[in-house]
Amino acid sequence: MGRRPVTVRLARWSAEHPWRAIALWVVFVAVCFVGGNAAGLNEATDADQAIGEFGRAELIVDSGGFHEPAMENVLITPRSGALDPAAAKAAANDAAARLRQVEGVASVGTPLPSRDGEALLLPITMSGDPETAEDRVQPLRDATAKVQEAHPALRVEEVGGPSIGKALNDTLGADFKRAELLSLPVTLAILVIAFGALIAAGVPVLLALSSVAAAMGLSTLASHLVPATDTTASVILLIGMAVGVDYSLFYVRREREERAKGRSGLDAVEIAAETSGHAVVVSGTAVIISMAGLLLAQDAIFSSLAVGSILVVAVAVTGSLTVLPALLAKLGRWVDRPRVPVLWRLTAPRTGRHGEPARARFWPAVLKPALRAPLATLVVSVGLLLALAAPALGMKLKFPGMEDVPRTTPAMQAYDRLTAAFPSNGTSHTVAVRAPAEQADRVHAALTDLAGRAAADPLFAPAEGDGAKIKVSADRRVSVLEVATPYASRTDEAARSLHELRDDYVPAALRGVPGVEYAVGGGVAASEDYARHIREKLPIVVAFVLALTFLVMAWTFRSVVVALTSIVLNLLSAGAAYGLLVLVFQGDWAAGPLGFTSIGAIVTWLPLFLFVVLFGLSMDYHVFVVSRIREGIRSGLSNREAVAYGITSSAGVVSSAALVMVGVFSIFATLSTIDMKQLGIGLAAAILLDATIIRAVVLPSLMTLLGDANWWAPRFLRRREATPPAEPPAPAPELVGAH
């Protein structure tokens, strides 16, 4: 007998030395977590995240060494009717007097009336580090609230970057905390339903949480090589819970199934290691490959997400091969305790008269059309998925703007009134210019002329107060001009104003200045440039993921056909998810039920991220199902019988795993921001489609139709296969008897 696979040898050692394996795992997790916290997080800088012309503009501004203090404003508007100038001035003077006494206020400016005379704006400059201004803004808000109490006939509000940032952090922080608190009980509830026993349900959650903790620490260490972003931790939690639960679920279900056949605990663990453990390694490799594709995007955000995801998947795979067999061996039959009475009877592994797993009736009924009429079933199901994917051809990409932030907070309501009264405080473009110091006067004159020309164009908003304000660096090499537009950041007019600046105004104004370097940035530029970046990088990432996944699947299953069909089915799944996202979010019909305001586009970063996540997670199910089909083939079943056996024997665990993911991802769809809603609904819908239509209809019909051709491979890929330890039962005669 040949050398046993590494998954079996690891499981055997862990099962025979459970306390050692558990202790080593606990030490590993603790060292990773504590070591990461000790090393500290290295966050990505603006230079790391520079993309396109927007990125160049940011770097030019940064090179000027400008001191940009945090700015706040007190906005005074009438509650009804016209603004009383005397009352507004009195309120402004009161606010100025109070705010000058507040710690953290560096200076209070002169009140500025709006062009229509219906608002008064009092600018406030904060002291200290602008990065921490939102943590120190509350005393200013309290002072403004007292001014409001003293002048009830007017609306007196504080609005600015720090106060908006604090309000959003409070709202979104509560959102994420609720999502995190809900995800754990939802996952546990689904697992209790899947297993019918509390300990069996708790084991996958325990492994997933410990994997997330270890990966958090490792990613902090890795941030000193690949800088981290503020979304990395959330993605580690999302991916870690998904794959950690999945891998444990596959393993535990197979171990329970083998014990139900009468095998000893050690034998059951070995068989689970050789079958489900092998599938976990392959699917984990596929997920890691998919996530590694993000590194090709040459983007600090995606690189950080890739590293975090790769680490948590690698840790989850390691845990499922080491500590999980130890836990199962130590628990033995206690893993099925305490039992939930009704659920246990429905979910407990049962065997038939000859020791094979007893068959449920639901999945054979679903599978019957695919086995009896594979061509018709394939054509209809693929046609439906292609129809669902078709809207993706009209996908538009945009960043959400300030207009898409929930208006549930007073700060955002005040922001709307601010931009209505003072349009130049809304959307703006940043014209950044770098030139030799001796050209500073010429650059200043050119930018002044540019601002004057733009003010006469309806695409731009004229500057408030004394006109264009041009910032010049201390060394006179860098000059910066803000050019406002009265349009919201994601409108076509705002995009057109950006292109007018880049293609006409700025080149014309600076033409002939020796040694000049310039770029136009700002929020609109970030959205436009990032969308272009994603369109350029998506084909490269997709090609990389497809090529490496093909190689892994061909080597694992020793079949070129299985590798090709794996890729085609996952592309079909991703395409359907894209189409569904466009259907739901680029129109208004679902805005009411799902609680969002349509931005008429998909969030720019989502298609690339969604592709790699879906491709990786979908491969989990595919590897598990095809592995069971392959078991049937290796044990001597015909192709049709093996397909029937593989689908029916894996359908329960795949459904349970998918329900966990759908439940967790759906929680993200309840968050306030449009990007989290799109991510949650896109992932949940795609996983649901993949685990049902793709795996239970398209896959069996395709593999039945291909027959023995499924397993074709060139000679160098073929090898002699060992007989699997578990004998699959004969498939249900009602499924295959017709042929």
For the sheet with most strands, the description reads:
5 strands, antiparallel
Average pLDDT level: 84
Determine the number of helices (DSSP H or I, runs of at least 4 residues): 24
Please state roughly what percent of the residues sit in beta strands, choosing from under 5%, 5-15%, 15-25%, 25-35%, 35-45% or over 45%. 5-15%
For the secondary structure, the number of strands is 11
Tell me the quaternary state: single chain
Summing up helix and strand content along with how strands pair, one would put the structural category as alpha+beta
Give the radius of gyration: 30 Å
The portion of residues assigned to helices is 55-70%
Q: Which segments are poorly predicted (pLDDT under 50) over 5 or more consecutive residues?
A: 352-359, 720-726
How far is it from the N-terminal to the C-terminal residue, by CA? 37 Å
What is the approximate shape? elongated
Transmembrane segments: 22-41, 186-213, 233-252, 300-328, 373-393, 538-557, 563-584, 596-617, 642-669, 681-706
Protein name: MMPL family transporter
Domain Membrane transport protein MMPL: 66-374, 406-715
Membrane topology: Multi-pass membrane protein
